[in-house]
Each structure stands twice: as structure tokens, then as C-alpha cells.
Amino acid sequence: MPELPEVEALREFLDAHLAGRVVERVLPLAVSVLKTYDPPLSALEGQAAGTTTRYGKFLAMRIGELHLVTHLARAGWLRWHDDLPDRPPRPGKGPLALRVALEGGGGFDLTEAGTQKRLAMYVVHDPQEVPGIARLGPDPLAEDFDRDAFAVLLAGERRQIKGVLRDQGVIAGIGNAYSDEILHAAKVSPFKLAASFDDEQVAHLYEAVRETLREAVARAHGVAAGSLKAEKKSGLRVHGREGEACPVCGDTIRSVSFADSSLQYCPTCQTGGKPLADRRLSRLLK
Q1: How far is CA 197 from its chain centroid?
Q2: Which residues pair with 109 in a beta bridge?
């Protein structure tokens, strides 16, 4: 799933390639992904694109006086074409969900692989009209997101820290992969209760959040849209690396599976050498 660093890189890419171009035609290929109907997609045609803004994992492309907002969900992606295929796309065929053709040639596709269709698109006057954006928590890379603000978010949270970091209503933009990376960098168990952190632990985790995301954003900077997924995977130290050696201590990276996802961690670095029980109601083995 694209998370804050990849979505930020896509934002930069669109600012460099889309801004100033005029939309010639918008072709919806999977009607189910369109979550708004007024204004219609056709209202974007003939309008010049402006800058693109990121809200957590959402991208909001300004086109004329409107915004085309998308959330790529788990398997969605944006594919840029300097030259679009000559043959018109066929609705319902393959992963293509939306095509935006630009005057003078080129454009981009929004695609979604797999059977679980969660890609979402909106045409709105204001991005805050999108419910998912309106309820977002603070951006962890925002200048005003300081240690004290982070401490306030954790205070009173009786949930495990892994779930808190992934909750978009608490902090915007962190998903399954980077929450694993952050907790490994901070040497924290994913099942530690958020409210149990003392001041020093809060400060340490805050620095891990900022540093992990900043490094990932820096790695993704300037990478072509089509290469961002590979860049993300290559930079991960524990997520998706079950059975491999921890790059810090050499212990074997382990995994805990849930209904529709899994987490990875290093027992030596994060849980005092004790493995986490691999069941849905997992807790630290004692």
C-alpha cells in the first residue's frame, strides 16, 4: 500500500509533470471507484491543472476550480504516460480505473490490481469535502507536529502502539509498512500500550517517526512514479522480511499474521528476545 513517503513522491512528480497542463478528456473505466457525482468528471475537461497537495495518503490534484482527489488504497497506483496508447481503453477490462488525457499528448492512468476494489476518487470544490480527509489526524512531518503534540496523541490511548500509529484519525499517512519500520527503529514492541510510554520513550518514538519518514521521503525524491514501489521495498529493514536477518542485531525477523495483514519485528531489538504469539488475539508470551 502506498504510504506517506510514496504519496509525497507522487505529489512532487505531478507538480513537475501535470501542473500547467490542460485536461482534454477524463475517461472513467471503473464507475465503482468514483465516490462523487456532482460536479461530474466532465467538469474537469478543458481546465488547466494546478499544484497537487497531499493529505495523509490522499492526493488532491487542483484542476481549474475543482480538485480531483484520489486514495490509492492497498493496490492502487498512478501510471504516467508521455504518450497514451492509441487504442481507447475498454471499461471493465484489466486494472484500469480512470484515464486522464492531456492536451498535447500524454496523461495518466489510475489503476488497481487484485479483486478487492478499494481505490477511491472524488471530484470536489474543496478537499475537506472528502470524509477521509476531514477526519485525518496531524501530518507527522508538519513543522508544528512537535514532541509535545505527539505526547498528547498517545496520552490515554489504551490501544497497542502499532494500531495507534496506523490510525489515520490519530496520525495521517503511516500504514502497515512504515509503522513496522518506525517501531523497529525505536526498539519498541508493536503490542506495547500507547499510554504506557514515559516521557523518554515518547521522545524516542517521536524521533523514530520523524527520522524514518524523512529518510523514506528522501529516498523516494526524484524517483519516477513507476519505480516508487521497488524503491520502497528496497528501503524496508523489517517489514516484509520475515525469516531474514535483522540488519541491526542479526536475529531472525519474525511475523504475526492477522485476518488481512501481518506485521514484522525483531525479537532481540523490540521484545526482549521473546517472540510474539502468532494468532489474531496476539499478546507477548510470558
Answers
A1: 26
A2: 79, 99
Q: What are phi and psi of 236, to 5 degrees?
A: -80, 135
- Give strand pairing partners of 49: 63
Q: Please, which residues bridge with residue 100 across strands? A: 26, 108
**∠ Cα 45 79 92 (to 5°):** 75
Q: Which residues contact 218 (CB under 8 A, 6 or more apart)?
A: none
Q: Which amino acid is at 53?
A: T
Q: What is the pLDDT of residue 279?
A: 60
All residues at 6 or more sequence positions from 168 whose CB lies less than 8 Å from its CB, including other chains: 56, 57, 132, 135, 136, 137
Average pLDDT, stretch 227-243?
90
* pTM (predicted TM-score): 0.92
The count of residues in the chain is 286
* Separation between Cα atoms, residue 219 and residue 217, nearest integer Å: 5
Confidence check: pLDDT of 118 > 90? no
Amino acid (1-letter code) at residue 17: H
| Other Cβ atoms closer than 10 A to 152 | 11
**Which grid cell is 236?**
524496508
Of the pLDDT bands very low, low, confident and very high (cuts 50, 70, 90), residue 285 is very low
